[in-house]
């Protein structure tokens, strides 16, 4: 029989099978995806040669918030992590539900959008209906997810490695050309750089998902914090270097006009074969992104079911696969509903807006937990502290709020639909604070 870890209350937990390598690969697989392979062109159109600076801004915001997640995950390594953190911080269910709902909604909508992005790449190889291809992809990856996280994470390691290789091709190819383009040239000024930062921040979203493997991680109190820091730093370095080299290979406006900007950049240095190679890499990377989004969303739903904020039957684990089958099926169904969407740039802004609100609240939650529970054991503590105040959490909150002020009115309105829908569901299902 398969072993199941048991909590103090006698319930069953998911099996702990993920080590640091798997967690870092999972984090990198969440972060490196459709964002960098698709949105780098749109970012270049806004920021010009200063594209790298937009990536650096996104990296700093992600790192500040990532350090808050690292400390919280070392204290409370649980699925439905945002719900647990918010509940520990204020003791009320409404704000806990709202933050977790926003994270769940962004995961599911993004899974639908990225699956359609996969379908677009697939059409360049074999013409076929986009929605059908996307639906088949979602179904196939949901089956893989339900087979067990061990198998999904093994596949994730392979695909994450391929994604990194694709970025390294662009970086190595473009390195000799750095300096041929004015790297501080921003045709739209600082407003263009901040606009690009908002857009490319989508490429960093996903590091938070590491926390939702807390119950499937070996020694989570130490492994999760290390996974957060390594994943964010690694991808930040890669993204900034891609930002430097891509605009050095191809003029920013040409990148902006391309549907495959990184493939175009590689072909500019290595010829047509490189375009085909990077297209294949982008296809596999998009595949990987959908896989990790489905895993994360299903674990969030599972955790919320086990916490009782969704029907408890959802928080059950299959005896055969030791995975949350019901939660995985609901994730598949939810993503399928959104398949008629698929505008990557619009979805990116909506996702970024909802995520920035949630990240600001997570940083505030850490500050409140520091204040009300200073004696709780913290295997990892965010650096730079003044008394109980975490300087990085304050900077994380401030940077998230500043980026939120840079969204257009239409994007902000669409983004606000996420918390409003969560509030409506909370009220109509009679949850009490």
Overall description:
The protein has 433 residues and is mostly helical. The chain has a single domain, classed as Amino acid/polyamine transporter I. It contains 16 helices and two strands. A hairpin with a 2-residue loop joins strand 1 and strand 2. Helix 1 packs parallel to helix 9 and helix 14 runs antiparallel to helix 15. The chain starts with 19 loop residues before the first helix and ends in a 5-residue tail after the last helix.
Q: What separation lies between the terminal Cα atoms? A: 40 Å
Assembly form of the protein: single chain
Task: Please provide the ordered H/E string of secondary-structure elements.
Answer: HHHHHHHHHHHHHHEEHH
How many structural domains are formed by the residues?
A: 1
Could you name the CATH homologous superfamily? Amino acid/polyamine transporter I
Helicity level: over 70%
Strand order of the largest sheet: 1-2
Structural descriptors:
71% helix; 433 residues; 16 helices; Amino acid/polyamine transporter I; two-stranded antiparallel ribbon; 1% strand; single chain; mainly alpha
SSE diagram, text form:
Blueprint (H helix, E strand, L loop, with lengths): L19 H12 L2 H14 L3 H25 L5 H10 L2 H31 L6 H18 L1 H26 L14 H13 L18 H30 L2 H6 L3 H10 L1 H36 L17 H13 L6 H29 L12 E2 L2 E2 H14 L4 H20 L5
Antiparallel strand pairs: 1-2
Helix pairs in contact: 1-7, 1-9, 1-12, 2-8, 3-8, 3-9, 3-14, 3-15, 4-5, 4-14, 5-6, 5-12, 5-13, 5-14, 5-16, 6-7, 6-12, 6-13, 7-9, 7-11, 7-12, 8-14, 9-11, 11-12, 12-13, 14-15, 14-16
């Amino acid at each position: 029989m398969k072993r199941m870890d048991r909590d103090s209350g006698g319930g069953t937990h998911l099996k702990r099978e993920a080590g640091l390598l798997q967690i870092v690969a999972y984090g990198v697989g969440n972060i490196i995806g459709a964002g960098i392979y698709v949105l780098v062109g749109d970012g270049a159109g806004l920021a010009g040669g200063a594209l790298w600076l937009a990536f650096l801004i996104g990296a700093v915001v992600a790192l500040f918030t990532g350090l808050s997640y690292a400390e919280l995950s070392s204290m409370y390594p649980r699925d439905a992590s945002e719900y647990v953190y918010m509940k520990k911080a204020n003791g009320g269910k409404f704000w806990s539900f709202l933050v977790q709902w926003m994270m769940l909604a962004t995961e599911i909508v993004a899974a639908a959008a990225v699956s359609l992005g996969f379908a677009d790449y697939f059409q360049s190889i074999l013409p076929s209906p986009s929605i059908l291809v996307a639906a088949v992809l979602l179904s196939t990856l949901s089956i893989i997810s339900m087979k067990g996280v061990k198998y999904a994470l093994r596949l994730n390691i392979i695909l994450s490695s391929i994604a990194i290789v694709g970025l390294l091709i662009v970086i190595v190819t473009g390195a000799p050309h750095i300096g041929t383009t004015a790297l501080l040239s921003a045709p739209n000024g600082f407003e263009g750089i901040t606009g690009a930062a908002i857009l490319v921040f989508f490429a960093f979203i996903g590091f938070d998902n590491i926390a939702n493997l807390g119950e499937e991680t070996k020694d989570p109190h130490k492994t999760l914090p290390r996974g957060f820091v390594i994943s964010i730093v690694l991808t930040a370095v890669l993204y900034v270097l891609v930002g430097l080299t891509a605009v050095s290979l191809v003029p920013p406006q040409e990148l902006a006009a391309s549907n495959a900007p990184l493939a175009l950049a590689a072909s500019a240095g290595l010829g047509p074969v490189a375009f085909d190679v990077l297209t294949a890499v982008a296809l596999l990377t998009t595949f990987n992104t959908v896989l990790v989004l489905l895993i994360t969303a299903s674990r969030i739903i599972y955790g919320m079911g086990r916490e009782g904020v969704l029907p408890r039957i959802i928080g059950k684990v299959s005896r055969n696969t030791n995975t949350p089958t019901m939660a995985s099926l609901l994730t598949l169904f939810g993503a399928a509903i959104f398949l008629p969407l698929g505008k990557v740039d619009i979805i990116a802004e909506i996702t970024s807006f909802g995520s920035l609100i949630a990240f600001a609240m997570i940083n505030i939650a850490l500050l409140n937990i520091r204040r009300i529970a200073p004696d709780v054991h913290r295997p990892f503590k965010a650096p730079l502290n003044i008394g109980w105040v975490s300087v990085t959490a304050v900077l994380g909150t401030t940077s998230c709020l500043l980026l939120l002020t840079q969204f257009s009115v239409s994007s902000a309105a669409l983004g606000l639909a996420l918390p409003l829908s969560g509030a409506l569901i909370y009220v109509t299902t009679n949850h009490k604070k």
